[in-house]
């Protein structure tokens, strides 16, 4: 059993999925726990307020559903917070507004540009775009601590013209090692995000190489998320995750309860 700790509902600007449908689908898949992690990103220039979370309505609705389904599944209320050096103060203030049970920090914007949009790789070659992304992520970690795991650490490769065809962690080993060491020193985890698999990649985000390296450097905290924005992607390819994690050196994965990791043994 793998619990999905990266899920988006219609509280995220890029999803139209009903939260109750998400919960019901997680129950059908036999999950004991699941976590909503709807988006908050500051200064998203493409569509104003697209990723501005109405956290009061969010908590009001999800607390009602949490209570309604408490005998069938543990519903956790989290957030995916897009972090940047320039918006660090906003992120710090936002994270303290509500009692989130789990916070994913992610990098979506690099110099204000989301690699999802063609202009990013119109400006950078693939190699330059990958390197710039990791540099930006690295700086963001220096300015924000109030999170639990780092999400889809090599997110940028999802949207490269050749996706992961020519991507190799070893080409960026110095800066990725620096990122992983910082996360470990801060007591933070990373997630295995399966969205890349349904977006045309041959691997999860991050790659197995990065998962192995995180473990080699002393990392222990791993969560698993589908990053689903529609209910049909919930738990996507989770049947492959135990073997992936074992091959990367892990015997456990984590869920979070009130910002504390709980280690669950892999079958």
Automatic annotation (TrEMBL):
Membrane-crossing residue ranges in chain numbering: none
Entry's Gene Ontology BP terms: L-histidine biosynthetic process
Domain Polymerase/histidinol phosphatase N-terminal: 3-85
Pathways involved: Amino-acid biosynthesis; L-histidine biosynthesis; L-histidine from 5-phospho-alpha-D-ribose 1-diphosphate: step 8/9
One GO MF term attached to the UniProt entry: histidinol-phosphatase activity
Superkingdom of the source species: Bacteria
Keywords in alphabetical order: Amino-acid biosynthesis, Histidine biosynthesis, Hydrolase
Gene Ontology CC entries for this record: cytoplasm
Stored InterPro entries: Histidinol_P_phosphatase_HisJ, PHP_dom, Pol/His_phosphatase_N, Pol/histidinol_Pase-like
Family to which the UniProt record says this protein belongs: Belongs to the PHP hydrolase family. HisK subfamily.
Protein known as: Histidinol-phosphatase
Organism: Eubacterium uniforme
